[in-house]
Write a structure and sequence with these properties.
Elements (H helix, E strand, L loop, with lengths): L1 H9 L6 E5 L3 H11 L6 E5 L6 H9 L4 H5 L3 E4 L9 H13 L4 E7 L8 E4 L6 E5 L13 E10 H9 L15 H7 L4 E5 L12 H21 L3 E2 L6 E2 L4 E2 L4 E2 L4 E3 L3 E2 L4 E2 L4 E3 L2 E2 L4 E2 L2 E4 L2 E2 L4 E2 L3 E3 L4 E2 L4 E2 L4 E2 L6
Parallel strand pairs: 1-2, 4-8, 9-12, 10-13, 11-14, 12-15, 13-16, 14-17, 15-18, 16-19, 17-20, 18-21, 19-22, 20-23, 21-24, 22-25
Antiparallel strand pairs: 3-7, 4-7, 5-6
Length: about 325
């Protein structure tokens, strides 16, 4: 999920990305180094004790180079579990933050049923943000507030450290929650703004497998829509699964039940499906695969395979060749 967040940041004018790691930090760092977008400058810092979101931000600030800290620029804060956020939304957040000369700007959403979410409380005088109230502490006057806080923020760097120091620990574990920083800044006389996101799904976090399934479905819809707008035909998009790492040329047809995972590359005019499962497989132009399972295989141009053919790792199907039904082809070349 963090990689989706980094992909979004890679399309924004960001000088430096700092990733705060904790549990299994070495594994997370290794994965991000190997798969993060090229050209994105990333610094990793460890949060040794899990003392809340405000503590994580304080730790993250130590990863910024002194040149950026001295410039008192803007700091965008995102959690690693919001894979649906769009780059355009982050750009809009920063633009609104700078245009209003705010010390802090929070991305918010309006929900018909805000229960279980933190509420954004505004001033009756100027409609600026006064505070963010955690759901467990919402009073009677705040229960009808339909604007809820997300976990995506933009801060002026110079105000962060002093404001973070003024936050009080909460709960028996003494955690520091970032939620309270808006009241601190407002009470200190700073301007606190919000930007309402048009699609609340963008800021949806993933905390369990049910939410993960919802996020995956949304991401799949976005990927499929992008390919269809680039000339790929999908007979049944809801039952077509394409990883973000897959490359597809125009005029390809994907029939129902197709799964393309990893580094698949599909050539122009190929017909895949129904019910094909391809992993890290290259398919040449105008080839037709029907009910084929393949992993790390290469299919030439104008070839055919299936139904019920299995291409094992290393299998090669030459241009114009045919793999007969119920064939299991290993690391040899098809005749």
């Amino acid at each position: 999920m963090v990689l989706y967040v980094l992909d979004a940041l890679a399309e924004v004018d960001i000088r430096q990305v700092v990733v705060v790691v904790g549990h299994h930090g070495d594994l997370v760092t290794k994965t991000l180094v190997e798969h993060a977008p090229q050209g994105l400058s990333i610094e990793f810092v460890e949060q040794e004790s899990q003392l809340g979101t405000a503590d994580a931000l304080a730790v993250g600030l130590t990863g910024l180079p002194a040149s950026l800290a001295d410039a008192d620029g803007d700091v965008v804060v995102l959690p690693g579990d919001t894979p649906l956020v769009r780059p355009t939304t982050l750009v809009s957040l920063v633009r609104h933050h700078r245009a209003t000369e705010a010390a802090a700007t929070i991305l918010t959403a309006r929900l018909a049923e805000p229960a279980s979410y933190d509420r954004v409380v505004r001033s009756e005088r100027d409609s600026l943000v006064v505070k963010v109230v955690e759901d467990a502490e919402v009073g009677e006057d705040e229960r009808d507030v339909d604007e809820v806080a997300t976990t995506i923020h933009c801060f002026r760097h110079g105000v962060l450290a002093p404001a973070l120091r003024r936050l009080r620990p909460i709960g028996p574990t003494g955690e520091h929650s970032l939620t309270g920083i808006y009241a601190v800044l407002h009470d200190a006389g700073y301007r606190v703004e919000s930007l309402v996101v048009s699609d609340p799904m963008e800021a949806a976090g993933v905390n369990d497998r049910a939410q993960l399934a919802v996020a995956e479905a949304e991401l799949r819809d976005r990927v499929n829509e992008r390919w269809m707008r680039h000339g790929v035909t999908m007979w049944d998009p809801e039952h077509t699964y394409v990883d973000v790492s897959v490359e597809i040329e125009p005029d390809v047809e994907l029939l129902p039940g197709v799964v393309l995972r990893g580094a698949c590359r599909i050539g122009r005019g190929a017909v895949i499906g129904p019910d094909c499962f391809l992993v890290d497989t290259v398919v040449g132009e105008r080839s037709v695969l029907h009910q084929v399972t393949a992993e790390r295989a290469v299919v030439g141009s104008g070839a055919t395979a299936g139904p019920y053919a299995v291409l094992l790792p290393g299998a090669q199907v030459p241009d114009g060749a045919s793999v007969e039904p119920f064939t299991r082809l290993g690391s040899e070349i098809a005749g």
